[in-house]
Amino acid sequence: MPHTTPWRSRALGATLLAVVLTVGTACGDDGSGPSASGSIKIGLLASLSGTYQAVGTEIRDGFQLYLDTHDGKLGGRKVDLVIADEGNGAQTAVPAATKLLKQDRVAALTGIVGGGSVAGVTPLLNETKVPLVGSNGRPELKDVSRVWHTSYLSDEPGEAIAQHVRDNVQGSVYAIGPDYQGGWDELRGFTDTFGKIGGKLANADGKTTFTPFPATTNFTPYFARIKASGAAAVYTFYAGSAAVDFVKQYAQSEIKDVPLYAAGFLTEGGVLNAQGEAARDIYSVLNYSPDLDNAENRAFVAAWKAKHDGSPTTYALASYDAAAVLDRAIGAAGNDPTPEAINTAIGQLGQIASPRGTWQFSTTTHSPVQKWYLRQVRQDGRALSNTVVGDLATVGR
């Protein structure tokens, strides 16, 4: 599945600003598309409460940063940004999306943290003919005609790091993660690829151990199982508050010296600050790091730091790129940027210059074909940071 594709650079349509300008968004009318004043209504759905509140906040702030650095406009039109809370999953995400799509009548939808939420919302997109430019992981879907993602498919991080783990771990690997759609996808990406290249799982039944979600806060019993398995390393995916609990308890456990590999969300953003020294030396795979050396990233990081404490995360980056995609698509959709016209324009964008490096949408999955990076939690001045230590596969379907 991994393959390498040469990219050529292409400049963004607007120069990123190093200093953030705070600009208010304009209010449009109650209909989708532009109003008489030339504004356009965009819906942003993200977890602003619950387990993944920190992730949802980054998604909201990443999109807002793009607006702030582009005069509050997308495609030359002032944006009326309507924000709704996704909560902990599809049960709360679907009603919130229904309001955005049917009552607020947004021209496009963005955000969404949970893969299960995406699956739940997709039928609504087809019913209302509104495109989603999502900015977090999602599962593979049968119908992606109105579904686009600037982040990744949820099985791709594990797929991208599997060869590295196989090459660098002498022995079996224990796989563990949360028991819900995102966890199933994230761990399957690793275990399927790892098995195909000759890797062996240390789990007693040869299958991933899944922990109840969101109920599991004590991981000590699972660490005892890992110890008994004789695993030479552990591969995992957790995010949000669950990631903090897992990492802190791991560092105090009887397996603290067993190397820990993970999808990058385990140590991404504010959770790394909460984990502190417990996270030191953890290896992770991700499509972004704030220390990437390119012009787009330097401008993006400077703009983020002018407005926020700390460095931007992959969540903020993907949402920022979602705004960039909508900026170009709305601009290309003509004088009447209807949801259908915007959706068509997204499919014609081609390569996109980004702080993560140049990427483009897959024509089959509508998710990015992009490079993945190996990172390690290391000292960076007075703080710990996810430092890029190597390139992994370029993945896309």
Automatic annotation (TrEMBL):
It comes from the Bacteria. Belongs to the leucine-binding protein family. Residues 39-381 form the Leucine-binding protein domain. PANTHER family: LEUCINE-SPECIFIC-BINDING PROTEIN (PTHR30483), PERIPLASMIC BINDING PROTEIN OF ABC TRANSPORTER FOR NATURAL AMINO ACIDS (PTHR30483:SF6). InterPro entries: BCAA_transport, Leu-bd, Peripla_BP_I. It holds the Pfam family Peripla_BP_6. The keyword Phosphoprotein does not apply. Keywords: Signal. Residues 1-28 form the signal peptide. CDD domains: PBP1_RPA0668_benzoate-like. It comes from Micromonospora luteifusca. This is Branched-chain amino acid transport system substrate-binding protein.
